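Exercise 7. Predict the joint structure of the components listed below.
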Amino acid sequence: MTNRKRALLQLPQGAESFYLEDAYRHRRIMERIERVFELWGYLPIQTPVFDFFGVYEGLIPSHDARSIYRLIDREGDLLMLRYDNTLFLAKQMGLMLTEDELPVRVWYADTILRHQDAEDISNDEFFQTGVELIGKPGADAELEVLALLDRVLNEINAPPRVVHLGSRALLHAIVAPESAEAAGRMRRAVALRRSSEVAELCIANGCSEERAALLAELFAFIGTREELEALLSRHDTARHLSELEREALRYVERIAEEYARLELRAELRIDLSEVGSQPYHTGVVFNVYMEGVGSAVASGGRYDRLLSHFGFDAPAVGFSILLRKIEEHRLIDGASTDASHAVQVDGESFVDRLRRADAVRADGKVALL
Amino acid sequence: MSGNKIAPLTMALPKGRLMEQVLDHLQSCGFRFKISKRSLTATDDAGRLKLILVKNSDLPVYVAHGIAGLGVCGTDVLYEAGSEFFELHTFEFGATRMCLACRADHDPAGDRAQLAVATKFTRFAHDFFHARGIPVQVIRLNGSVELAPVLGLAPYIVDLVETGSTLKANNLKVTEDLAEIRVKLVCNPAYYKLHYRRVAELLQQIIENGDTEHESNNG
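Solution:
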């Protein structure tokens, strides 16, 4: 094999390109999703491919920072490629929005880039689509994005899935986010469902053994609202939980109760080990899991202080779907592209063929010259 | 989630001695498998658990991508893989030690400022010595690590030691135990969330069978 041929065959580890039927399927799926977003009053937004790294420092978890592609521009400034649409979008929104415009509903669909280890079979390029509902506080906002997410996944024939609903607010009530190191350790122990470590960290944080045991049990909880009620009724919550903690739990229960009334397709489970993966999460958080996919296919939650980082204080809630993870489920038929049903037109000259093709196309069919 | 017939839970096992120990354990928990010599998968008689037999070092990859929902693996392999799983259980069997070893006649006074270490466990070696503030040059080997000090590739090795007989046979000695290695039952987080009740039932069966070191990680 020549060096030229070898060079052409090489792709950087993790780079993704998709062709023909795959690309067709991806476009059709995005069209359906866009239609739903727009019927719900969401407007498109396009974020830049790269931005200054320093702008987002403090908003990126340390384990994510390692996976960000960084580059230095000609002036010597450190830049980063878009690794999360929400962050880049929050900066734009924070700079542009005024109080009069609220609430604002926006949607995005774009590639994000994150490094993955060589052992990982997934790509460094991910296609992320999602929404942000800015300036709407309260449970209605969370319910709106949860309902919209359900509708979008229905629209693209996504397989059965479950929504796991948790609360970053509960974690913040126990360990203040300002204590970054302690909060980070607790978040990781909770997310990895390491109950013994959660209890140890609670005790190190000044909790009594009874309170630490209750918090460890709570953070390991997965189930229905009624099951959570039953768990809480077995404990002296007035004694062992603060008002802020009880409020965070009541809020999650309220979302779960309202969600049940919406009769959405995805089952919702309260899962208090869901505490959100991003430092900017502040309230309810959720992940969506689907059979046959090894990680969450969609995630979201509330982040009420993110925009203030960019100069505009407004509550916000949203979700994102990592679309390529579920496209492999062949949600719509990519084999029967419009081009595969095309009519090959005949004619003596190009002019004749073009006229006949235009007539075919006028009937909504695909014509090939 | 999966239609009328419930699909079995999937569990990756590392081929080799550890697999035999896990199979014995699962059998004592009531799971019966018929595994022929060349087969790479097997489902128990009751259709509850499907085993996927893989190379030890590949096991975390299969679990990370949810090809196998569960896996049984040593903490040495898990550490090298770097994937984060739910650790559901620590088995009593299969424990071993990660050790630093050198030639029996090695004089540490002659060591360079940067420690040179040959090992299969490069990530562990880097992290361990860096946590101690010791600069380290790690030379990756895939087998017969004991040869490295004997042939002069590196004065030290980091490797698993059970009885120490292989070290002795090569005129090597353990200079320090670096970590205890245990065998864990791990679960892909997304898989756990989808199947948490069934995984909890399986775990209960394993715990009731006599192992006591439950990680208290399930809901």
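Discussion. Chain A touches chain B at residues 117, 119-122, 160, 162, 164, 192-196, 216, 220-223, 271, 273, 287, 289-296 (CB under 8 Å).
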